[in-house]
Design a protein that fits this description.
heterodimer, A: 111 residues, mainly beta, five-stranded antiparallel sheet, B: 115 residues, six-stranded mixed sheet, 10 strands
């Protein structure tokens, strides 16, 4: 069974601060996705990373895939209240039809 | 439609009753998934359909849970003899190809409350 562990589970920060959330596994994934979910809605894809060591930037968000394709991080610069939500990582494997999801990081950015 | 549609958005039922949840995937998406999400937690895989292949039912928690999909269209998730621990949000997602090659597109879920 492939497991993904996310940390921290909860994070509450002030507007303008930086933060990093982590997604770790002992398994290798062919791709890894980060999703953001707001209350009452389904998760929405932020990014997909597929190459070990890959770094992708989406405005103030920076995503990195570990060299061994077992872990990933999401860094947010100058967080804003609109970044508040549940951040989920999900790993895909070429052999498994389903994505494995972490338990998520609940981020609250206070104005 | 443009996105994944789920109905009903909310369902309150009495313990012991059967419920049926519906998912309309994005047109042309061959893969369809059902996940369960308890309050404040991550997503628990339930079942996966890929084209005409046999579904992966490995995540269904008990034989009270079943799901069907006709071709590459609508899917229904049925929970028989509901229990209070079944209360959760049930999320449906579709993807154009098998996961790992394309991302999941989620509906807004059905919030099930068993009283």
């Amino acid at each position: 069974t492939q497991l993904l562990e996310q940390s921290p589970q909860f994070l509450s920060i002030q507007e303008g601060e930086n933060l990093t959330v982590y997604c770790n596994s002992s398994s290798v994934f062919s791709s890894l996705q980060w999703y953001r979910q707001e209350p009452g809605e389904g998760p929405v894809l932020l990014v997909t990373v597929v190459t070990g060591g890959e770094v992708k930037k989406l405005k103030r968000l920076t995503f990195q895939f570990g060299d061994a394709r077992k872990d990933s991080s999401l860094h947010i610069t100058a967080a804003q209240p609109g970044d508040t939500g549940l951040y989920l990582c999900a790993g895909g494997s070429a052999n498994a039809g389903k994505s494995t999801f972490g338990d998520g990081t609940t981020l609250t950015v206070k104005p | 439609g443009a996105g994944v549609s789920q109905s009903p958005s909310n369902k309150v039922t009495e313990k012991g009753k059967d419920v049926e949840l519906r998912c309309d995937p994005i047109s042309g998406h061959t893969a369809l998934y059902w996940y369960r999400q308890r309050l404040g937690q991550g997503l628990e895989f339930l079942i996966y359909f890929q084209g005409n292949s046999a579904p992966d039912k490995s995540g269904l928690p008990s034989d009270r849970f079943s799901a069907e999909r006709t071709g590459e269209s609508v899917s229904t998730l049925t929970i028989q003899r509901t229990q209070q621990e079944d209360s959760a949000v049930y999320l449906c997602a579709s993807s154009r190809f098998r996961v790992g090659r394309s991302p999941l597109h989620f509906g807004n879920g059905t919030r099930l409350t068993v009283t």
